[in-house]
Amino acid sequence: MGQLSTIEKLGILADAAKYDASCASSGTAKKNSLGGKGIGSTEGMGICHAYAPDGRCISLLKILLTNHCIFDCHYCINRKSSNVRRARFTPQEVADLTISFYRRNYIEGLFLSSGIIKSSNFTMEQMVECARILREEHDFRGYIHLKTIPEADPELVHQAGLYADRVSINVELPTDSGLTRLAPDKNAQQIEGAMGKVKSDIAEMKDARKRFKHAPRFAPAGQSTQMIVGADAASDADIMGKASRLYDGFKLRRVYYSAFSPIPDASAVLPLKRPPLIREHRLYQSDWLMRFYGYQAREVMQATDHDGNLPLDIDPKLAWALKFRESFPLDVNRAPREMLLRVPGLGVTAVNRVLAARRHKTLRLEDVGRVTVSIAKVRPFIIAADWRPTTLTDRADLRTLLAPKQEQLELFAA
């Protein structure tokens, strides 16, 4: 086979990178080139590849350095036994692409991952070199996210954090047994050990910057990870428990969930069908409850069905409320913030508006309706000046009343 052109390589390696969901670009230090130095900025508008928490669209060049790999993870399309077209960039090519795309206003940053070629250390050295060229030779001040390799030397991972805004290490699967079965070349203890080292490096460098003005930054946007959903027998309860331990143990910015997708020439140990995408969505909702709504992992697990999985027809917050109806109804004029956050249909913004409004007036049902999308979902769980749900909260068919109506959409409907 002849040598591939840069465009052909880009087509192969950009497509191969689509399975990695953890490409958000939020939380980094603000950098720009407005003073005439350097190129790029971490703050801007562009083609949407990811969303920041404040709603900004962030464009990222999301590619693999190479899709060659010496590992044979069953679920990975780039595993060594997979029959896929292979390609490989040099660090200079990645840097040149990034700068070229930035100058055309296509992107604002780089998300770089890779298969393992030759060895973990060699691959990590190549990825660090990509970031070094961008930062030192081009003075690039845009966003860089490096997917690090837990088997690599810790010093190489440390160098990656000095150049990157965010680093991430994928835990891959929620259970150790699943990882052993589906990714025999990987080790759960080694992965968590690498995450622990990144956590300590972040804390150490933050402390150094408090004492020394010009101390270098280390991964200012923190670290994240990703778990594959549906490749093994792990339940949603297993996944949420793992996510909670990772948040608590390693101070992660995000845990991403990626629904398993069947791949060509798949291993016989993998499921034949992908899990429903709504399952991935429910896991993100449960993750949101733990991060922003004050739920403990065990409480979100209580919303699961008998098989340990979250219901697909209703969201986890409503599922929890229906199981613990004795906690409701809540008086919107008196209930504390942490309890109002548990009312189905009231988000963080809505609760904040309720708390602000009730300082000035006694709230009626119509007042609550102005801050929520669906007052019908809220009514069974609240008391207002002119509203009391009486027996509505205890109705046996309440779940049926509140579950979103299933609608068959037409492909060619106007």
Strand order of the largest sheet: 3-4-5-6-7-8
Distance between the termini: 47 Å
Number of domains: 2
Structural class: alpha/beta
Description:
- Its cofactor is [4Fe-4S] cluster.
- Keywords: Iron, Iron-sulfur, Metal-binding, S-adenosyl-L-methionine.
- This is Putative DNA modification/repair radical SAM protein.
- The protein has 414 residues and is of the alpha/beta class.
- The protein has two domains: 6-223, no CATH class; 325-402, no CATH class.
- The chain has helices at 6-16, 91-103, 120-137, 154-163, 176-182, 188-211, 236-250, 277-292, 297-301, 316-323, 337-340, 348-357, 365-369, 375-378, 398-402, and strands at residues 50-51, 57-58, 60-64, 109-113, 143-147, 166-168, 223-229, 254-259, 330-331, 382-383.
- The chain contains 15 helices and ten strands.
- The radius of gyration is 24 Å and the shape is globular.
- The model is unreliable at 40-48 (pLDDT under 50).
- Helix 4 links the parallel strand 5 and strand 6.
- Helix 4 (154-163) crosses helix 6 (188-211).
